[in-house]
């Protein structure tokens, strides 16, 4: 039986570029390299932001293991751990793998992520576990509490849930991208003092 096509994202016009807020709502945040960072974020080692990003309280990004690159308008919520995965080479050497997180992607609260890459417009809801060396395709939506096993390639523009994840629906790429952009822009704008 074919999976249902989910079209819950309302059509909307979004041509606002995600920008780091100039003034945070409180002194809990600072702007570093165009990223809005809560003062209780643990940035270790080589973490690169290529555009405005939001890093919430308690997030830990382990760039001391291997480089982590966040593209424009990435949101890392409270208490998320992003840790580069380790790969065992055929000669039994252990290699740390670089991590990339694509434009307009978000990782929900209390998620532990060891993915090798996360595409653009990805939504990972809270309390998920993303296994080592997994690859999350563009536009994937991973529902709350889901587990992505190590080494899995998650197909783009599907909704997944469960332990282990299973596809439960398809997303329309254009409307999903617009919906995710709007969510990210609202999140960034909520930090600006009105």
UniProtKB/TrEMBL annotation:
Compartments, as annotated in UniProt: Cytoplasm, Cytoskeleton
Gene3D superfamilies cross-referenced by the UniProt entry: Hexapeptide repeat proteins
Coiled coil: none
Subcellular location, principal: cytoplasm
UniProt keywords, alphabetically: Cytoplasm, Cytoskeleton
Keyword Transport: no
Pfam families the UniProt entry points to: DCTN5 (PF21711)
InterPro entries: DCTN5, Trimer_LpxA-like_sf
GO annotations of cellular component type: dynactin complex
Domain of life: Eukaryota
Family per record: Belongs to the dynactin subunits 5/6 family. Dynactin subunit 5 subfamily.
Protein name: Dynactin subunit 5
